[in-house]
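cron nightly-structures :: item 1 of 1
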Amino acid sequence: MDLIKNALNMVWSVIQTMTVMDFVDIALMSYLVYLLIKLIRETRASQLIKGIMIVLAAYFISTAIGLRSMSYIIKSVLNVGLLAIIIMFQPEIRRALEKAGRSKFGIGLLSFGDNSDQYTARWNSAIDEICDACTDLSATKTGALIVIERQTKLGEQIENGTILNAKPSKELFGNIFFPNTPLHDGAVIIRDGKILAAACFLPKPQKEELINKKLGSRHRAAIGMSENSDALVIVVSEETGQISVAENGVLTRDYTRFKLNERLREAIFPNKYKRKKDNDNDGGESDDEQKPKKKRSRRSKRS
C-alpha cells in the first residue's frame, strides 16, 4: 500500500512541475509514436520488431540467470543496434520520408511546378490522347501500362527504360504496346504531359502474396509502383480488355472512357476539378429551379 502511495505522490509531483510546453511536447511525441506504430503495422516491419523484442527478452533472461557468454554476444549485437535498425528499416524509413514530402506541407515547401496555361493545355491534350488510346487498346485487348508521374519523380524507373520525350497520341501508344514490338514489354512514363520513357520496369508490390492470384504481372507492377510513389498507373488487361487504375496501392477496375477522363483530371488538376465540381453543384439547383418556371411560362402562352 505504501508503495502505491509513493508512486502516486511521485507522479503528482511531476505533474505539478510541468508547463504548457511540456504537455505540447508529450502530445507531439504521442502523435509521432502513433504514426510509427501505424507505419509498422502496415508493413513487414512488424515482424522485424517482434524479432528485436525476442532478442531483448533473451538478453534480459540470460543476464538474470547468469549466462555470461550468451549475454555478451547479445550485448555486442545490441551495441550496433541503431545502425542495424536503420539498415533493416531502410525501405520503411524511405517510404515514410517520401510520404511526408508528398504531404501538403512538403509540396508547398518546395514547389516549382509549371502552372502556366501552356502546361494546362499540354495536360488537357495528353489526357484526351491517353483516354482515346486506352479505349482503342481495350477494344483490341492489347495489354498496356501507363504511369502518370506526379510529385514523386520516377528517375530510377526512367533510367532503365528508353527515353522518347514525345507528344502523346493514340497512334504512338498503339505502336508502343503492339505485341512483340521492342517497347511493348514494360511501362510508359508520362511527365508534364509528355511521354518521357517507354519499356520501363516497375517495382514489385510490398505484399505480393496478398494480391489476387488472378491479377497478371501488369496489374501487380501497377500496384507496386503506386505503393512506392504518388503516381497514377493505368492498366489495360490483355485478357479481358478491362481498364484499371492503381493509386496508393489500391487497384480500381472497370473504367470507361468517361470515368478515366474524370479520374485523370481529378488527379492532375485537383484544385481546378474541385472548384468546377463545387460550381456544378451550386449551379445544378438553380437550373432545376428554373426549369419548372420555363414550362409554366410556355403553358401560360398557349392558354
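cron nightly-structures :: done
The two ends are 95 Å apart (CA to CA).
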